[in-house]
Amino acid sequence: MPRTVWSGAISFGLVTVPVHVVSAREDHSVRFHQVHLEDMSRVRVRKVCEIEDREVPNAEIGKGYQLTKDKIIPVLDEELREMPLPTAKAIEIEAFVPLESIDPIQIGDGYYLQPDGQVAAKPYTLLRKALERSSKVAIAKYAWSGRERLGLLRVRDNVIVLHAMHWADEIRDPAELKPDDVNLTKNEIAEAEHLIERLTRDDLEGEEFTDRYTQAVEALIEAKREHREPPAVEEPKAPGRVVDLMAALQESVAKAKASRGEDATVHEMPKKKTAAKKTAKKTSAKKTAAKKATGSKKSATKKTVKKTAAPKRRSA
Questions:
Q1: N or C terminus: which one in the chain shows less Cβ crowding within 10 Å?
Q2: Is the pLDDT of residue 294 over 80?
Q3: Are residues 9 and 89 in contact, defined by beta-carbon separation less than 8 angstroms?
């Protein structure tokens, strides 16, 4: 059972939903300690006062804001606790918006919201169903670790999820990172779209979506524990410099096809016709048109002569 990281209530108008907040993620990274290599003893970080040059216990440690290089303003925990913070024990829903209107760069870690007891089951289910039927997400404010935060509520597998969000002024403007304008041909864009189609799939299931680095580290540790050579690891290829963009796209499409067992033949893009061929084609078209026009004139002349030569019959 995941550990509760926060307890409070969702405030939905006048409806209150008591909840426990638990992390929605599990970290499977391999953890290491810092050790002294000569005797393999642990190396620990100690909190030392710069002036007295001695280790300071936690009871003597507080918070301070550095105003200038030589001046620090102390801020007590009691002062922070006494500051007005209406969202200290509530996740207050402020609005409902389409998920598409939220820039994904604002969305952070996710947490599951668990109803706190049977009394919370009905309002919790009410909010969940309302979110599902509205096809919208809720934007809320809440307070963790002494500061007010922005959050997003959505539904996943019949459970309400709270995503931490960054405030709008915390997102940097990427305009200065934009490259200069370049010219792309229609064929290059079309081939890139073709590659996207070949790499499109319905889910993220498969061996290519596994953490191979962590697996390799675990295999290394197991081999050292058993005093044997670690398994050989294939050296990753460094990405080459793209010289011909179209050739690189075509080769990428061929590899995507091969990985799916399809025909991986690279087909050449149609070459542009030369000016000489265009001129010859135009000349041929003009001759054909002239012949048709001459033939039409001759046919019309024959019909006129035929009509003129034919005598009219008189009645007896």
A1: C
A2: no
A3: yes
Cα distance between residue 20 and residue 4, in whole Å:
6
Residue 269 token pair? 């893009």
Phi, psi of 133 (to 5 degrees): -75, -30
Q: Which two tokens stand for residue 287?
A: 């001759």
Residues 113, 160 contacting (CB under 8 angstroms): yes
Nearest 10 degrees: Cα torsion 34, 37, 41, 45: -30
User: Which tokens hold the place of 253?
Assistant: 């499409």
Band of residue 241 on the pLDDT scale cut at 50, 70, 90: low
Residue with tokens 């019949």: 158
Q: Coil, strand, or helix at residue 73?
A: strand
Average pLDDT rounded to a whole number, residues 66-85: 86
Query: What is the pTM assigned to this prediction?
Result: 0.65
Neighbours of 90 (CB within 10 A): 17
Largest CA-CA distance found in the chain, in angstroms, rounded: 147
Q: 58: which 2 tokens?
A: 């936690």
Query: What span, in angstroms and rounded, lies between the C-alpha atoms of 149 and 86?
Result: 12
Whole-angstrom distance, CA of residue 84 vs CA of residue 146: 11
Reply yes or no on whether the pLDDT at 268 is more than 60. Answer: no
Distance CA 200, CA 241 (A): 25
